[in-house]
Queue: 4 jobs
Job 1
Amino acid sequence: MTLETLALVGAVALLGPLLSAGTRWRVPVVIGELVAGMIIGASGLHLVDTTDATFSFLATLGFGLTMFVAGTHVPLRDARLRPALGRGALHAIVVGIAAACAGWALAAVFDTGHAAIYAVVMASSSAALVLPAVQQTRLGGAQLLPTIAQVAIADTACIVALPLAMDPARAPVAAVGALGIAAVASLLALALRWADRGDRWKRLRETSKAHELAIELRVSLILVCSLGALATVSHVSVLLAGFAGGLAVASAGEPRRLARQLFAVTEGFLSPLYFVWLGSSLSLGSLLASPSYLLLGLLLGVGALIAHLVGALMHQHPLWAVIAAAQLGVPIAAATIGAETGALAAGEQAALVLGAIITIGALAAAAAVASGRASFSPTGTQAAGAAPGSVTRSGRPPT
């Protein structure tokens, strides 16, 4: 990879914020970055080589940091969510059962043998998409907190389950690796809480701020790389390593200074590079060449919406169910792992992204409709502008 290629990737990645800033419904930034990658990659001009070792390494680091930032945004410490956790968990479980049935049906119809992957993808949600949409349209009402709890639970559970679903034959080995990463992340969370109560850590942070040493950011990068190395050794995706590290930081409370530093290095460089790399590796031609993959993508999106609409049977408003169905992080992670391991055909990778885009369009439409209804007013509930776990960038997934 050359500096010219890096400059090209950075330039085309600006399509993301341009599309996001120029529309009423605020297209998620990652959509523009994926489209930019498709234009210069395998689906378009073939200006970049996604198999280049340096390009792939930087994309992997960006993937890990993107999931790390997503993990820090899960509202683990928000007491307002605790009363709604039971109801949110029940909704997530019911949606998971419906998604499992739909995944089995799609795998049987298309004869791919990937029922578990489809089920996890369709059951997933994206806090990084839902929370900004709720904030921007200032939605509220009695079902706001249960829905946010459902999204957070589904987001976390599906990210944990995805690496196991991608390679069922290695599930026992992957499960051991996942448990190892979870144990390390738990110990890290305890260490961070202990350090936060001590004066030494506080003095270290003050010194870092006074002398502009960025110690918090350095420690976070070491953490992500260390967990990523552990994931590589234990044959687990960097997806889980980054997300687990982010959850550990979230459980202790992410300092605002660290949030700003992470925003700069991740959102400003490595994350856009990752999404451009992913878009470059996708082949839209495979969708056009094989109508079955195009149909699979459409059905994955529709299946995710139907699975979440099952929540209406439990008195969840259909608009909230559609909003909770928005997904991007898990399908993109599945496409990434599929590209790296060869577990998914090129058409399947593109189909997963197409299905996610359908749910994003449904989210935008549902949020716009809900914003005009009195039952979705924030009066008497937590204002959407202060929604727990609010993210720093519109539409950036984890998950």
Note: DSSP finds 18 helices and no strands in the chain.
Job 2
Amino acid sequence: MFGGPGGQMNPRALGAIGAGIVGLWGLSGFYIVQPSEQAVVLRFGAFDGHTETSGLRYHLPFPIERVEKVSVTSLNRTDVGETPAESLMLTGDEQIIDLDFSVTWRVANPAAYLFATRAPDEAVKAVAESAIREVVGKTQLQPIFSTGRGQVQLQTAELMQKTLDNWGAGISIVEVQIRSANPPPEVVAAFREVNNAEQDAASATNEANTYRNRVINEAKGDASKVLQASEGYREQTVRDAQGETARFNQIYAEYRRAPGVTRDRLYIEAMERILARSNKVVIDAKGASAPIILPPDVFRSRTPQAAAPQPQVEAAPQVQGKAQ
């Protein structure tokens, strides 16, 4: 293979070696893209708009084409505020605040991510610091410490995304998270005293509101009970009057048909109601010369709740016997 007559190399050997080299060079164009990645294909160092997703892929071997793989699913984090130059900011009411926050982001466009900015991490940090200073500069100090922190985070993320989109950076902002927000160290003690006083005032206000609501609710409940009771009494009175009217009309109709019988029945019913609540002794007064002595049981009340009424003595000449 390597030598023939006169010490010259065999042309066939040279051809085999060349073919092997070319084959290896051609095979070097195969590459694998992971599911979390996208591949950007560069031809002679320039992007020609060709990207590849996950799987076994092929590009023309180096130096014609080469591949840059970019993770598009992993989340990246950039911290801002680790030094006083980054953390000290001026609020909308001209107060100084010491703010430390982080930005979570991911790659949305691999090609733009590779070529739009020279250092994407530094670009994200610079945009984050600029955006939060703008948002904090329009916000009062107290809301940043309490309920307005979420709004500051949201506005900062929106402003960052708008700026990066204008740059064509190919980066998507996932979240802005304020890790700590404090006054400058020199005024921490005074600030805590003011904060404690405000919390005491808020607590007293809440207690007063609670007492007011309780009293108002109780008064409304009592008023509702009185109103319901009055409506119930009115309804009962109206129904009783209607019942009495209907009963009177029925009795009047019967009276017109039989006046004597109706009068007697009404008289008997009235006497039954009256005499049912009293003790009665009926005696024969004819020929009685000696005093009449009644047994003690006659004077006892029929119901334990009612007081013992005085017995009534009625003369009934037509009833025989001494006592019934």
Note: DSSP finds eight helices and eleven strands in the chain.
Job 3
Amino acid sequence: MTSEKKERLVMHVDMDAFFASIEQRDHEEYRGKPLIVGGLSGRGVVSTCSYEARKFGVHSAMPMVRAQRLCPQGIFIEGNYAHYKEVSAEIFKIFARYAPVVEPLSIDEAFLDITGMELLMKSPREYAERLKREIRARTGLVASVGIAPNKFLAKLASDLEKPDGLVIITKENQQSILDPLSVGRIWGVGKKTASVLTSLHIRTIGQLRQTDRKKLTAALGAHMAEHLLALAQGIDHRAVAPREPAKSIGKEVTFPEDLKDRAEAEKVLLALAEKVGYRLRGHGLKARTIQLKLRLGNFQTYTRSRTLGEATCYDKEIYQTAVELYQGLHVRQGIRLLGISASGFDASGEISLFHEEARKENLYAAIDKIKARFGEKGITKAQLIQRPDEL
């Protein structure tokens, strides 16, 4: 006697206008108004915006200057990303109570594998409604949910009836839902691929599904053709899996105007090293490799790295290495971007028996305790006190 393989059941949860919704929750004066969160410099972009702002054509990843033209009456703020992370952590704790496997996609969305959890639910719809109610009760925020046999369909479903949506796609209704949708809804279809498909008179997923495989392969290549045809038929075999641990920890900053002063560049590197060191220690890690990233005003980008004799998580050593890498580039043009990242991790658990190392451990532990209580700006280097706070 053979048993049939259990059909997968995947839930995708996506918080609606996450950053903007938190701000509107916390600030009564923002409610019901077009609110845009993002970088306010000339090169800033929109992180997210309220649904009131979306009516004016504003959307995430849009240059902020364009958003200001489209919605001059909008409220524009930089946002509090540390606070958003705290709210995200609370939401992910809720996710963990609803599924044994959670795969984060970003700060405000995740896949939940609820396969085989029928004993804990009256129905998938009731289970999703319960999750949405708990998120709203605990955080005051609204989530949209999609449920389907795989990740592609679940993510697509969560986006169909935003905000506060709940859509369930099954094998029985998947083609009736998929076929009328634009091919732009498929993962991997960007502007270039969409342009090729349009030239083939393929605008909907239904038209894509019915396209001859050889014709599609000739236009896009075998790999992309197979990928698109599979998704057009609702086929996606990827498993829901927890995100792998970070392979590097870093921080970079893009400047509103190109940086031309060497001393100011080194001051920025000091601030970046301070942040990278703090994050390494927060994860209980030391890194053997320090990498510098530098982009000039003409967008030419350089990366330089150095592997240390001993792994470190200390600001001073990260900074010294980054500065030496920077000086070795002999930059003569304006700098658009600077970044530092650390990789090649070692666990940093035990305090060294050597006096100097133990002293550094204790010093940085005290610094981190202050930052944990008062925020990353609670204590910093004297050289950075007068620096504009763009990091």
Note: The two ends are 63 Å apart (CA to CA).
Job 4
Amino acid sequence: MQNKFAWIMTPDLPWDDRKEMITTALESGISYVLDLEYSDKIRKLGNVNIISNEDDADIYLVGIGGEGDGAIDLSENLSDSIDLANAKKAKSEGKTVCAYIKITDKLHEQLAVKLGPIVDYIILIGTDWTVIPLENIIADLQKVDVEIIAAVNDSEGAKLALETLEHGTDGVIFEANDFAQIKDIASEVDNASKVNYDLKIATVTNVKPLGSGDRVCVDTTDMMKPGEGMLIGSYSKSLFLVHSESLESEYVASRPFRVNAGPVQAYVMVPGNKTRYLSELVAGDEVLIVNTKGETRTAYVGRSKIERRPLILIEAEYEGKTIRTLLQNAETIRIVDADDKPLSVADVKPGDKVKVYIEKSARHFGIAIDETIIEQ
């Protein structure tokens, strides 16, 4: 599942009231604002992306004051559409373009499908709303590189839109008119973006201390709890659950924001069911925090720290397949056993049962694909 997102439309209120709603949205992680009046003032509130019909908008909007909102009658010959012409012109000028369409009839549904291959985003507004037009448009545009956004009023509407036809819309947009509403919808979007990984139990077959290598510590901007860590391994298809440094130790103080992850060439799972090399991670990158149940959440890298440290090789077997990872050889470095308990690499031995994630697909540049790739 991909990361879902939320945008807000500012309410028809005086600036001071709009400002409060926008500030609450920013605090809730929503940084895209559709506003046709106060873009200069909004930019002063923070790092905000403005969606409007002004030339300097971050995302140029077509459809408001056009056929999309019904201000202009839509011809049955969609090739004559003014919104379609405006979208093509804006794209030719190098703009990021969003189409705004009220789905009042089948013809407007067809306009959305016609605009899909041209624009970057489509906002769909339901009037006498049923989920059927949304299902139709998602189905018609499933292979088109466009982000579909449904207008909703509350968290229930957001949940429905984000789950329609299993894939759901890419995002939701709503008129921000209540503090609780903003936080509830932001929370629903966050929940819809989470992926659960089906962790398997593998049997350790070999443990071998090695010499020194360049090891990466990943410090995040989140505090991890016991039972949380990251999926890391030498093979992109086979990753171990490496525990965070959230436990107290007689050797060092806990660092609950940190995963002592492994050598520079190891893979780590990141949002979007993708992997990255540990050596690639820099401040501001996203990583996936995973708990013992396979539940996930996204965190940002605060920094990654590469140091020369002694390493240890751990091999395990799952259904006849051998998987491997290298970790720093230190008492405070832990993987997770079959009982969801942290297991220090200093204590791990052949026969131990540990939690791993096995990907069926191969990966190319970190993306899962149907291809035969042998990793050993």
Note: The longest strand covers residues 296-318.
